[in-house]
Design brief:
Elements: E1 2-4, E2 10-12, H1 21-34, E3 39-43, H2 52-59, E4 66-70, H3 80-90
């Protein structure tokens, strides 16, 4: 899981198992500790982004700092994060 700031900083979370909603919350909390101010999170339609853990986290007050927008379905070309993953898979491996 990863995110890119406007300044080009990359934040990543790697793990051996599949990601779940709780991992999304952990990543958002980590990002909120490291990045001051409001966050605009743009993500794909993965079910882990819409899960109960994420909904509860946002409803519990995080929504005051985190705004979530969803990419259209099947639009990896609109996701700047995909370029990072492509680079890591094709160039750095």
């Amino acid at each position: 899981m990863s995110g890119i700031t406007l300044e080009g900083k990359l934040y990543m979370l790697e793990q051996e198992r599949a990601f779940k909603g709780e991992d999304v919350v952990r990543f958002l909390k980590h990002s909120m500790r490291r990045i001051p101010g409001k966050l605009l999170v743009i993500w794909d339609g993965s079910p882990i982004h819409r899960g109960q853990a994420v909904k509860e986290f946002l409803a519990g007050g995080a929504a005051s700092r985190v705004r979530v927008e969803q990419l259209p379905g099947y639009a990896p070309d609109l996701n700047p994060d995909e370029g990072i993953w492509k680079h890591l898979k094709c160039v750095e491996s």
